[in-house]
Design goal:
Length: about 400
């Protein structure tokens, strides 16, 4: 049934792009399909790769400006080509085909001319999809943690809170939605994160609110000195801290997220925390022994088993597909070479957005995507986004939009 829905979304995406010229709807449908990418879902990955490639070439042939994004796109392509050429480890080809699909989505999104309204409409549709599927999952299954629309709860919460922060800043400052709608949308996101049981999602929500407040101040008072910025920052943090305490008191004690958060606040290691600590130890050991190219995507579980077996550690504490830390994932799976290329790719996209900001200081796009990047990078300390295949499509869209903005001054 899931495969049928994915194929239907991909076919509809092709129709939207080629027949209706609705590129934004087409991107959304491909990203919805990519949320079910997994190494064992070979046909799904191939279908998404094929569709994303068709979209890219169709857009590339009709785009007026084609050259500016080559440097960004070629960085990961050259890396993947080099890995296939030298094969420094056993390759799980479907991981890399999933990454190639994400590169095509990125390049396609980078060729599209995005504006604030289109970004907000895209995120409204995507956010509603995540929220509604989360609520439906909770109602039908009563799982302690929801998030099957992105296969796992942590990925679900991180993508949701990242998209929400971009949506909120753009929608508020550009007056696309009223304050009531933005508050209602924020409340729905809060409930969805509570249902996901993801502690870092809750932290990301308050980070988004704080960065939103600071962004609103900076956009209105562009020549503010560092002292006043610091004063506003402290005030915003104090207000959020007060609101956090009040909300925390009102939340029922039997909520899963409150019980696990209480354990974290008390400085105790629960099953989840202990599993992460052990996996981080494995990742550090892998990095030490495989500095240059790492061990390759998909090979981490076997390394975990070998390490735990050699140390006599009970495996039930967290054999998993990744190191639960985006930086350790990149270093352990792709080594220093892959880490440098992937970081250069991300920073180049953010730099491109910054160059746009220098010519268009009244636009909220820079503040919105920088906020999303900060949240994603911070939550990456305990999460795999965007190196987790089901989140790769959203991350590709995120960086593609950053790369799509030109540094020229826009005319009103």
């Amino acid at each position: 049934m899931i495969v049928i829905l994915i194929v239907s979304a991909l076919i509809l995406s092709l129709f939207c792009a080629t027949a209706l010229n609705k590129q934004y709807a087409a991107v959304l449908l491909v990203i919805l399909a990519s949320s079910q990418m997994a190494p064992q879902s070979h046909n799904v990955i191939l279908a998404i790769l094929f569709t994303a490639a068709i979209h890219f070439f169709h857009t590339f042939l009709s785009a007026k400006q084609k050259n500016y994004f080559w440097l960004i796109s070629l960085l990961p392509i050259i890396y993947i080509f080099t890995i296939f050429l030298i094969q420094p480890y056993k390759l799980d080809i479907y991981y890399y085909l999933g990454y190639v699909a994400a590169i095509f989505i990125f390049a396609w999104a980078a060729l599209i001319k995005w504006d604030i309204e289109k970004i907000v409409r895209f995120l409204t549709a995507y956010g509603l999809y995540l929220i509604l599927t989360g609520f439906l999952e909770k109602a039908l299954t009563d799982n302690l943690r929801v998030g099957s629309s992105l296969t796992v709860a942590t990925a679900y919460a991180v993508v949701l809170v990242t998209g929400w922060s971009i949506w909120m800043i753009n929608a508020f400052t550009h007056k696309i939605y009223s304050i009531k709608i933005i508050l209602f949308g924020t409340f729905l996101v809060f409930l969805a994160i509570i249902f996901s049981g993801t502690r870092m999602g809750l932290i990301g929500l308050f980070m988004g609110l704080g960065l939103f407040g600071l962004s609103a101040v900076l956009m209105r008072k562009k020549n503010m000195n560092i002292i006043r910025i610091a004063a506003y920052s402290v005030s915003i943090i104090a207000l959020l801290a007060f609101l956090s305490v009040m909300i925390w008191k009102l939340m029922p004690n039997d909520l899963y997220i409150k019980r696990t958060f209480s354990t974290l606040i008390e400085g105790k290691l629960d099953r989840s925390n202990m599993g992460r600590v052990q996996i981080w130890i494995v990742a550090l050991d892998v990095i030490e022994k495989n500095k240059q190219f790492g061990i390759g995507a998909g090979n981490f579980p076997n390394k975990c088993r070998q390490f735990f077996s050699s140390m006599g550690i009970d495996e039930k504490f967290g054999i998993n597909t990744h190191a639960h830390n985006i930086y350790l994932i990149m270093l352990s799976e792709h080594g220093i070479a892959g880490f440098a290329i992937l970081m250069a790719f991300a920073l180049f996209c953010i730099l491109n957005l910054f160059l746009y900001f220098l010519k268009n200081r009244s636009s909220p796009v820079f503040y919105a995507f920088l906020t999303g990047f900060i949240i994603m990078a911070t939550l990456g300390l305990v999460d795999a986004t965007p190196m987790y295949l089901p989140t790769a499509g959203f991350a590709a869209w995120f960086f593609g939009v950053c790369a799509s903005f030109r540094s020229e001054k826009e005319t009103c």
